Amino acid sequence: MTGGGVLLISPDALLIKLIGLPDAEILVWRGLLTAIGFLAIVLARHGRGAAAAYRRCGWTGIGVALLFSLSTFGFVLGNQYTRAGNVLMILAGAPLIAALLSRVFLHERLPRRTWLAILACLVGIALIALDDAGVGSWRGNAFALLAATAMAANFTLCRTRQDVDMSPMLTLAGVIVAATAVLYGVSGPGITLPAGATLAWLLVLCLGLLPLGFTLLQRGPLYLPAAEVGLLMLLEVVVGTLWVWWLLGERPSPAAFAGGSLVLGSLLLKGLVDRRVERRQRARGAVQHGLC
Question: Which of 69, 100, 109, 185 is most enclosed, with most CB atoms within 10 A?
């Protein structure tokens, strides 16, 4: 589920490049359209029980919506104010932040293989971002750090209510992003309605891919520790780089190829080990059940 969500949102950076709108405008339309998309998904899933699905989220859901909004602002504005390599390297710290938050607040212990996979992926992301990294602006770096921290905190908060699906609250997150960006745009050049290819890409991204992808991602903490969800999200960097290479002809460097291979290899190896451990546990449980 988490991996599928990551693949759906992987063209995000590519489509933002193709859309090419100013800060306030991309945030307004991204927030508004994703809110409509999230609402449509909730109505399709729950029908007449949609209102109850929102109520079940409670105050925790409000926190999830606020944190998701902060991560959206951080990701979009981070890419506007600093180099993409800086953003990638800072976002790669999200699994570590999630692991620390989960350890402190939820007392969750991660197996050694997860820590090794996180460290290997950090090295891989650093190799991908190496060519485009630099000092950047402190403002852009701060936005990227905000995105990484808010993302990790969001997944950790969801783990406190493992019996409740928090994905409906992403509708509120979209509204918060759009409303805040409208206030920002009032003092700037204003908000205009895009047209043509810009509008088409905007609809594909914000009405389709992002609502579906983030709904799946937001359900990830129901089944996985927050650090594991954050770790799988690093797959977006690799696949997103391949999208840009394929459609825009921006060929990755040899270091980026090596970094992407390291991330994919680490996630694949960890997945195989997890599957083997799970099978052993099931077999052990079956034997114990038979003895009882």
Answer: 69
Entry pTM = 0.84
Task: Return the percent helix, strand and coil in the chain, to nearest 5.
Answer: 85, 0, 15
Those residues whose C-beta lies under 8 Å from the C-beta of residue 79, and which sit 6 or more positions away, are 13, 16, 87, 140
Containing H/E element for 68? helix 50-81
* Structure-block tokens of residue 5: 């969500």
Contact call for residues 284 and 159 (beta carbons, < 8 A): no
Q: What is the largest CA-CA distance in the chain?
A: 73
Q: What is the dihedral of CA 103, 75, 265, 216, to 10 degrees?
A: 80
pLDDT tens per residue across span 73-94: 998 888 777 777 677 778 878 8
| Tokens describing residue 285 | 């449980």
Q: Which residue has the tokens 């991330």?
A: 263
DSSP, res 1: -
